Amino acid sequence: MEILQATMEDFDGIVKLLKTYHVDYISAEDKKDGFVTTNLTDDQLRRLIEEENGVTIAKENGRVYAFALAASWDYWKEWPLFEYMIERLEDYQLDGVTITKENSYQYGPICIDKSVRGTGLFEKVFFASLASMKDRFPIMATFINKINPRSYAAHTRKVHTTEAGTFQFNNNNYFLMSCSTSMQPE
Ligand SMILES: CC(C)(COP(=O)(O)OP(=O)(O)OC[C@H]1O[C@@H](n2cnc3c(N)ncnc32)[C@H](O)[C@@H]1OP(=O)(O)O)[C@@H](O)C(=O)NCCC(=O)NCCS
After folding, report:
1. 142 Cα–ligand 1 center, Å
2. Site residues for ligand 1, CB cut-off 6 Å
3. How confident is the model at residue 112, as a pLDDT?
4. What confidence score (pLDDT) does residue 186 get?
5. Complete domains list, the chain, with CATH
């Protein structure tokens, strides 16, 4: 399995994976193992790949098995949830440092095809995504829906992101998770 930053060649594979595990399309059976909620138009995904270099993927024989999205808050600000997070970012800290729009970026969603979950691929894609942003930002910030315990378990036990706090948006309850972009695999 190769882990790399996506190019437009990977566009269709990323969309396929996103649609399979997006809350709007996911099967009831798969939902208990996590789901993604961020919707991207084709143009938003193209800009994320081409202008932000913000999609880390795992692929084999041309098939995309995993992706992690990451970009500056300036990119994400057009989504209402991210606009809300940006307004409140400075209420949260990582290791005593206030999280700001300038010193952090938003990672997520991450999505792993169910055929390769629990194999260590999650950690590899997570750290590759982190490394891709390290030169631009010292802090990673993300959100996890409280009704996604698998994602919370992965982000606290498989990689050690820190719960900086919680927030509510649109009748959903979220954890705000954070870590240093210098964090290393154990
Ligand atoms: C969330 C996701 C990225 C994690 O990757 P993964 O390969 O499944 O992660 P792992 O299996 O290595 O680790 C998950 C851990 O959670 C545990 N787990 C599974 N279901 C769980 C549940 N309902 N509650 C608590 N823990 C759970 C697993 O047992 C595992 O821990 P273990 O290896 O100690 O047993 C992946 O499941 C996924 O893509 N899900 C669909 C999309 C999604 O939810 N993305 C995250 C959005 S924030």
Report:
1. 16
2. 21, 33-36, 108-112, 117-118, 122, 144, 148-151, 153-154, 157-158
3. 98
4. 82
5. 2-180 (3.40.630.30)
